[in-house]
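Page 47, continued from p. 46.
Same chain as before, 87 aa.
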Amino acid sequence: MQTVVKKWFRDKASGFLDNGAGPDIKVTKDNLVNCGFLKVGAKVEFECHEDNHQLIAKKVKLLQQNKSGGHHKSNRSTQPFRPGVMT
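Result:
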């Protein structure tokens, strides 16, 4: 399955994945495959399991957010810096 991260609590090393109109899917750091934490809005792929009437995400993989084939691109502008006058 694929969805987006709805909430992530670094101090608890866990969070929730969006499940549309259904109940949120709980995810813990122990079930992350290719990362150490998640960011809200990030797209993930996972297996969904039920545990004590709660949905749990397992084998959670962070999907690439850019279209450059996995190469990280900076958010900085590629235009040269032009000094100006601060007022």
